[in-house]
Amino acid sequence: MERPEVIDEEHVFEGRAIISQTATKGVITFANRKFCEISGYTAAELKGQPHNLIRHPDMPKAAFAQMWDTIKTGQSWHGIVKNLRKDGLYYWVETEISPVKDEDDNITGYIAARKPASRKNIEEIAATYKTMLEKES
Question: What is the CATH number of the domain that holds 82?
Fold first, then answer.
């Protein structure tokens, strides 16, 4: 029996958010249990790795360039992202990334919270990402 490429997000998330934290260059410093469960990686495998470890090849580089441009200025970024699991399956998430700052207002890292993306949002953004990828080729 052939397995599906996409996971059943509603069942797997069970109402809990994926949380991760990174250093300023995007290296993972924390991954909650739900992130580990959904990505298929252990916390030990994730910690110290670049967050783009889970980047799906269908994601255009320009989408992440815009994200970095936003969060480096101290603003939060919100978007829909297709992520790749360790086992090759994928999942779509609605993502909010916010800077973490020290007492002097310097950015020391970033924290991301993710939940399942709606089918409507996935359909809309998938077409946009496909066009963006074609322009990158």
Answer: 3.30.450.20
Question: What are 83's strand-pairing partners?
Answer: 55, 91
73 found inside a domain: yes
Answer yes or no: is 23 within a domain: yes
What per-residue confidence (pLDDT) applies to 6? 47
Backbone angles phi, psi at 134, to 5 degrees: -60, -35
Let me know if residue 3 belongs to a domain.
no
Instruction: Tell me the whole-structure pTM to 2 decimals.
Output: 0.85
- State the residue range of the domain holding 58: 9-136
pLDDT recorded at residue 5: 54
- pLDDT reported for residue 16: 78
> pLDDT at position 52, please?
95
Q: Is 10 helix (H, G, I), strand (E, B) or coil?
A: helix
Nearest to 83 by CA among 23, 25, 15, 34: 34
Render pLDDT for 91-111 as a digit per residue (tens, 0 to 9): 999 999 999 999 999 999 999
Q: Report whether 74 contacts 107 (CB < 8 A).
A: yes
Domain count across the chain: 1
